[in-house]
Each structure stands twice: as C-alpha cells, then as structure tokens.
Amino acid sequence: MKSSYQKPILPQILTFEMIKAACKKAEELKIKVTVAICDDGGNLKSFTRMDGASLLSLEISQNKAYTSASGRATEDWYPTIKNNPALLHGIVHTNRLAIFGGGLPIYLDGVLVGGIGVSGGTAEEDVECAQAAISVIEKVLEEEGIIYS
Asked: Domains in the chain and their CATH numbers?
C-alpha cells in the first residue's frame, strides 16, 4: 500500500485567467456576473463580482462551484433527480447544492481538481461564461501537450 500519492492541483494563476475569460464572455453577452472557482475540496480558490452584478449571485455562484466540484455539472442534477420524489424533495435540502446551469467541474490531466460557478445571467448564459473559463484550461493544456478530459 502506498502511503502517499501525487495529484494535480488547480493553480491560482490559472484561476485568474479563467475568471477573466468568464467575465469577457459575460461582457459579450451584456450581462453582469459573479464567478467563483473552488478546489476539489469545495474551498473557494478565486472569486469576482462584476460591477453591477446582483447581490444574490454571490452565494449562488459559490454554491454552483461547490456543487460542480463533485464532478457533475450543476445542470445535470435536476434530470437525475426529477423522477425520484424522495430524492427530489430530500437532496435539495443539502447545503450548497445547486441544480440549475452555471456550474462545471474542472479537470486537469483527467483528474477532478475543482469546480467553477457563474451566476447573474440565465442558466444558459451562465453556462456559456463557465465554458469560456474551461476553454482557458483546454488551451493551456493543449500548449503543454496534455489532452483535456
């Protein structure tokens, strides 16, 4: 049995670039958002609130990041639980769970390293902004010769 192992982590400098990309997409969409990025333990790593973004979007973006750090996009939760009444009415009481679009898991070299949450637009717009941030990772990994998964 190994007593330790190595795993990739989400570098802080990369999270800054991700946030810039998400905000740039929000500007293109003419919306104001908050963006939260957390590590694989659900701990907040980077955060910003665009000038004029809704107060409610602060907590929502962080909850989306936390939820997606579990390895599943936030928009994938509702289709999974909607036909199971016990789960539908029970799991939504889980602290920090978000079941609508705007949260995406973050992988580096095939390993889950965190999640990103965007809030302020429609669920679809929030997903677009989060995907713009994920694209930064894909570009960096491509430059390093690593396949994104």
From this structure: 12-143 (3.30.450.150)
